[in-house]
Amino acid sequence: MEVDLCFVMDCTGSMGSHINAAKDCILNVAKCMEKMKPSVKIRFGFCGYRDHCDGANRLQTFPFTESYVQFEKDLSGVSPMGGGDTPEDVLGGLNVAVNQMSWRNEARIIFHIGDCPSHGRRYKNIDDDYPNGDPNGLTAERVLGEMKSKNIFYFFGKITSFTNEMVNIFRSIIGEFPVYDLNSVDTGLLVYKFFEATCSAIKTAISLIE
Description:
The chain is an alpha/beta fold. It has one domain (9-209): Rossmann fold, CATH 3.40.50. The protein has 6 helices and 6 strands; from the N terminus they run E-H-E-E-H-H-E-H-E-H-E-H. The chain has helices at residues 16-34, 68-76, 90-100, 140-149, 164-174, 187-209; strands at 2-10, 41-49, 59-65, 107-114, 153-158, 179-181. The protein has a 6-stranded mixed β-sheet with strand order 3-2-1-4-5-6, with helices on both faces. Strand 5, helix 5 and strand 6 form a beta-alpha-beta unit. The N and C termini lie close together (10 Å). The mean pLDDT is 92. It holds the Pfam family VWA_4.
């Protein structure tokens, strides 16, 4: 079994520990999947997003690769920075993952990790420079609809309750999907949670296409 796994991650200043957890567990995830019967080969990809005020640093992507060494090297260049108001460019990150990554394998996974919702008061009535939604005109209905049409499985790593309304809206569009608790102040526990959630997402996606 071969899998395309794209991490879509908020890379603003508050996400440092979660970015580091991703870096720390990737190789262990790969080794875990190789031990499965039959073994699972993974192509890793990454789409990091920040916010519209961050200019050229708003989006940061790395194409799919089968080299875990290359992927770890790519992630080493990702640093938490930026972010303006509370919401972030969630739809921008997801849109790049869906439409600009070279999806190839039958098992296709987006594992989205974030602590804040997308822009728009429909997702959360908090301080928002773009209360009417994404300034580039992206909508959840469009982005998630394209995700579903490409048979990409969506999984979400929850860090705060700020994303609750967004998750409910996403589920109303594409149906139920797993949400993993990734909230932890303990570094070791966070890495373990990240590892367990990633492996679970992969195994769930594989079971749904077999």
